[in-house]
Amino acid sequence: MNVLDVRRLSTAYQNKVVLDSLSFSVRKGTLTGIIGPNGAGKSTMLKTLLGLQPKLQGEVEFFGKKLETEKKRIGYVPQRGAVDWDFPTNVLDVVMMGLYGQIGWLRIPGKQHRQKAMEALDKVAMTDYATRQISQLSGGQQQRVFLARALVQQADLYFMDEPFAGVDAKTEQTIMSVLHELKEQGHTVLVVHHDLQTVPRYFDQVLLMNKKLIAHGPTEKVFTTDYLSKTYGGAIQWLEGGFNGRHPVKQ
Amino acid sequence: MADILLSSNFQWVFVSAVMLGMAAGMMGTMSNLRKQGLMSDAISHAALPGVMIAFLMTGEKDLMFLIIGAGLSGLIAACLIQGIHQSTRIKEDAAMGIVLSVFFGGGIMLLTIANQVGQGKQSGLDGFIFGQAASMIRSDAMIMGVLAIIVMLVIVFRFKEWKVVLFDPNHAKMMGIPVKFYESFYTFLLVVTIVIGIQAVGVILMAALLIIPSVSARYWTHSLLIMFVLSAVFGGISGGLGTLISAFGEGLPTGPFIVVSSSVIFLVSLFLGSKNGLWIQRMKLSKYKSLKSSHDVKED
């Protein structure tokens, strides 16, 4: 069953084409790494899929339906830099904001919402920081708070924009275990990712892109030197020696 | 002196000025968090030509018409700033500088004309520059007070939604909150708050009532809700005090006294604020230093 269908999606900034006719489908319960060089349009693709940026053409379907009706089933973890961390609020409050879509207008968050938010914080090992002012968090802690805000939504499909960028080892481990747990529970996750070395360990599906879609499929079939050099334009020689052309997973 | 305080006209003006200060404090919190403090300054300066055109067209100083005129020219200015910024390479601050000065210059020119040809001088149109709360009649004060209360209610009843839109607009969109609507509505509320205040506070200093209370409030709290409340309190005190002081002297402008009152609150907050104040930061630093030095001694 497909949770995401993308057909000929294109977008542009002014006159520059950023996404060039992307088509792919994502199956339920998969964990996909979106890989490509800087400026390949990875973040732009996420934002365009989610309607946060206008598209030039193409169709996007979530669970076989239009985005507008399915928004509550979709969670989005933006890059850390997307918000001002000096904003006057604390950790628990940010996580509770993930529930505002469910609480309804004119209602005040109640005990059960606080409970849910604390559970989400527990999953990312941040319960000790619940009352901490968000400006006092480290980069990794900020990332875990963002993840908790998405988890509390209990969405079926998650998009994460570089959750591993510039975080400490503990955060990386926490995020990874959360991702695998989500997958085991049948959720679908797409992650923009930069660190090529960890790709085979982290993801069962890989989507290689550089404005165009290069390849998409199971990691062992797609995460190959051939496809990677197509994606990165031949600047990926070091892989030859390290991986010996074979896939680490198969070794 | 006591006569003034006891007159029901003044009491209306005073209460309305407090309401205005509170609404401005709340709106200012939003502007500050959106990093658009200067936008309110541009809009309030740009309101002047609207006031003058409304006066020249109707020939009388009916506050409702003047407010509508001010609102329209304020909105046009806000759209122009956005338009210039988005369609040219001109940065937003430069666009604000251009629009603010052109509109304000035009307004002063129209004011001169109104003073020469019409009964502008007798009507006290000059009061719109620096504000003249004492010159307000009861019905003016009521319009100001009621609109200020409406602005506050709109913020309070949608507090949750405003909060998400302010913190992370993209996240708000994903939760199905109509962010574009809230953003336009924010600009509308900002313009309303500014134009109802220009008679009492004046176009030049209206921005102070929006910006200073919320900046002061930030020194006392890390909570958005408390920041809104404190900012409203600070704004209310500033608006009330400014009106009170200007009522004592004949013809004293209100705006400058409001700015002085809010500046005092700001200075106290800057130094003594319990969360980000300079004093508390110094205390934390010296505590850390002494901890560190005692730690160093142990290591030796």
Write up what this structure looks like.
Chain A: This is Manganese ABC transporter ATP-binding protein. Chain A: Keywords: ATP-binding, Nucleotide-binding, Transport. Chain A: It comes from Jeotgalibacillus soli. Chain A: GO terms for molecular function: ATP binding; ATP hydrolysis activity. The complex is a heterodimer of chains A (251) and B (300). The C terminus of chain A is likely disordered. In chain A, helix 5 crosses helix 6 and helix 6 runs parallel beside helix 7. In chain A, strand 6, helix 7 and strand 7 form a beta-alpha-beta unit. Chain A starts with a strand and ends in an 8-residue tail after the last helix. Chain A is α/β, with parallel strands linked by helices and 251 residues long. Chain A has a domain of 172 residues: 3-Layer(aba) Sandwich (Rossmann fold). Chain A has a six-stranded mixed beta sheet with strand order 5-6-7-3-8-9, with helices on both faces. Chain A has eleven helices and nine strands. Chain B has a single domain, classed as ABC transporter involved in vitamin B12 uptake, BtuC. Chain B is globular, with a radius of gyration of 21 Å. The chains are: A alpha/beta (251), B mainly alpha (300). Chains A and B meet through strand 5, helix 3 and helix 4 of A and helix 9 and helix 10 of B.
Task: Please summarize what this structure is.
Chain A is an alpha/beta fold and 251 residues long. Helices cover 35% and strands 25% of the residues of chain A. In chain A, a hairpin with a 1-residue loop joins β8 and β9 (212-218).
Query: How many strands of chain A?
Result: 9
User: Which strand order does the major sheet of chain A show?
Assistant: 5-6-7-3-8-9
Mean pLDDT over the full residue set of chain B: 89
Count of all domains of chain B? 1
Distance between the termini of chain B: 71 Å
Strand-and-helix sequence of chain B, N→C? HHHHHHHHHHHHHHH
Q: CATH H-level name of chain B... which superfamily?
A: ABC transporter involved in vitamin B12 uptake, BtuC
Rg from Cα of chain B? 21 Å
Number of E strands of chain B:
0
Which structural class should the secondary elements of chain B be placed in? mainly alpha
Assembly state (oligomeric)? heterodimer
Organism (chain B): Jeotgalibacillus soli
Membrane topology (chain B): Multi-pass membrane protein
Function (chain B): This protein is probably a component of a manganese permease, a binding protein-dependent, ATP-driven transport system.
Family (chain B): Belongs to the ABC-3 integral membrane protein family.
